[in-house]
Amino acid sequence: MAKEEIVLGIHAVNALIKRSPERFVEMWLLKGRDDERLLPIINLARKYGIPVQLVHRKVLDDKSDGEQHQGVVARVKPGKTYTENDLEDILSEAERNNESPFLLILDGVTDPHNLGACLRNADAAGVQAIVVPKDKAARITATVRKVAVGAAETVPLVQVTNLARTMKQLQQMGVWIIGTAGETDTCLYDVKLDGPMALVMGAEGKGMRRLTREHCDQLVKLPMAGSVSSLNVSVATGICLFEIVRQRRA
């Protein structure tokens, strides 16, 4: 049985309690803080009968391992773990909602802050799921939830055993896979991006692995005009996702 998880930060706790109040085991709030930002969480905790303790800052600091907690920390039961077996259902649900499949694949992103920011980007762009390798990649943690400001509860993180094999399966389901790579001559803005699609972003510093690159249908790059050769992966992800959104709206 998976162990219980820690959730911290106002946005992360608020999003989870609205979506899955049954997962909450207990909650700790900063003693003496009852401002308008925490009041909705307090009211929801009372509504759902979640035990709440008022504690000093040192207790919250210890429970959050020094991460910024904004005066609220919760202990929750583990959520659903998504695997490659869930992808067909995710795409089928998108089609039932008259949405074209739209996925984000992160090839070995290990920084939890980058994963959290990518989740936030994905939620804003309407991505139906993020696919990551099961090994050597960041997974959902308290830090990821806090950075994602609620998006960790709305965008499924699908952990797959073999990323290249999963990409091939997606292609067989009619999903066109676009990978980002600095060595290509094709600019993101010169490619048609309005069908069933998965965008692949590589790891921090290293980019996509060779096998991942070989399983892409097309490679694109962002035009870089200055002396900087690359962007942070979450920044580049946001730019690419919203170019896809722009083309779909057009």
TrEMBL record:
Gene of this entry: rlmB
NCBIfam families, A to Z: PRK11181.1, rRNA_methyl_3
SUPFAM superfamilies: alpha/beta knot, L30e-like
EC number: 2.1.1.185
Alphabetical keyword list: Cytoplasm, Methyltransferase, rRNA processing, S-adenosyl-L-methionine, Transferase
Annotated SMART domains: SpoU_sub_bind (SM00967)
Protein name (record): 23S rRNA (guanosine-2'-O-)-methyltransferase RlmB
Positions of S-adenosyl-L-methionine binding: 202, 222, 231
Molecular function GO terms recorded: RNA binding; rRNA (guanosine-2'-O-)-methyltransferase activity
Domain RNA 2-O ribose methyltransferase substrate binding: from-to ranges: 6-82
Function: Specifically methylates the ribose of guanosine 2251 in 23S rRNA.
Stored Pfam families: SpoU_methylase (PF00588), SpoU_sub_bind (PF08032)
Gene3D superfamilies: 3.30.1330.30, 3.40.1280.10
